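Dock flavin mononucleotide; give full complex structure.
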Amino acid sequence: MTIRDHHTEATRRLGIAHPIVQGPFGGGLSTVALASTVSNLGGLGSYGAHQVPPDRIGETVAALRAHTTRPFALNLWVSDHDPGGEQLTGAEEARMRALFAPYFAELGIAQPPLPTRFHPSFAAQIEALLEARPPVFSFVFGIPEPRVLEECRRRHILTVGTATSIAEARALDEAGVDAIVATGAEAGGHRPCFLARSEDSLVGTLALVPLVVDRVRVPVIAAGGIADRRGVHAVLALGAGAAQLGTAFLACSESGTTEAHRSLLFGEASERTVLTRAFTGRLARGLVNRWTTELDARTSELAPFPAQSWFVSQLRAAAAAAGRTDVLSLWAGQIAPNLKHRTTTRLMTALLQEDS
Ligand SMILES: Cc1cc2nc3c(=O)[nH]c(=O)nc-3n(C[C@H](O)[C@H](O)[C@H](O)COP(=O)(O)O)c2cc1C
């Protein structure tokens, strides 16, 4: 059966025509154009909103609604900080400023003062999301409290949680979510674990999907290492009800990343990815560059999430404007060397075409 005609309990619940989910991207890399194009082509488009302030969540959902009448997901991070990452002591701030000083100097920019918050509060974001009522609320790094899931059900917002292990999948299933993303260690972006250390949450997609499928009642969406029809067929054969692709959509022109990052994703540099805390303080997969090499050698000096993430993000605009890719977070999953398509429509068309 071709992918376009493969209807599952996941596609039925989510109200989508085809078993394809565009993975959400945080850090300003999601766009309304990307998510709405995927939804309009019969997949589930997603918008990563973990860094969107609560008072802008309503307008984000409204913009998505203005571009598609089909279902889409808004994505948040349930855990908005790690211990010690929300506030820095004077000594910690001084250490971070010293660590980052050479990079600010190289880019010719001053270090800004610390903000009152490094990251929006999930508690405030979720109230805004409930108010905005997106068709689907997907989340990572935990499980919202029962009241929130209950309120989602009452407001007809479908909930999709994310698991990196059997234990996390069981916990999500027991909490009553509508679907579970099982995300293997091949995936680009963070290890979105919440019950064990990231370093102990590295099961690959081929093992994780059937482990989860066999143990939960709800549909499973497979993520990690999927970029073409072979990958989608493989996870459907393992029992997943849909495939979630991240890196392949990130490389498309509609995503919010830079041209410099895209060209690396399509080049030889894509053959080397690494799991690193250099980008945000949480373990995440991206391309090896000077940034990951220099900061991974000093992991004990990095700040926990989100303080580390804030310092890195202060460099981003200047680095991007200067066309620099050596001091930028270059997110990528292990499947990047096989990327082929540069627009969302071409990627979706290729995924949905008849098998030859
Ligand atoms: C740059 C980047 C940012 C991401 N941000 C999020 C996020 O905020 N929330 C989330 O649920 N998943 C996030 N992900 C994971 C993707 O949605 C998707 O599950 C993953 O990329 C799939 O693996 P693949 O990259 O091998 O296709 C991110 C991935 C990337 C590459």
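Observed: The pocket of flavin mononucleotide is lined by residues 23-26, 29, 48, 50, 75, 138, 140, 162, 183, 186-189, 192, 223-226, 244-248, 250, 331, 333, 335 (CB under 6 Å).
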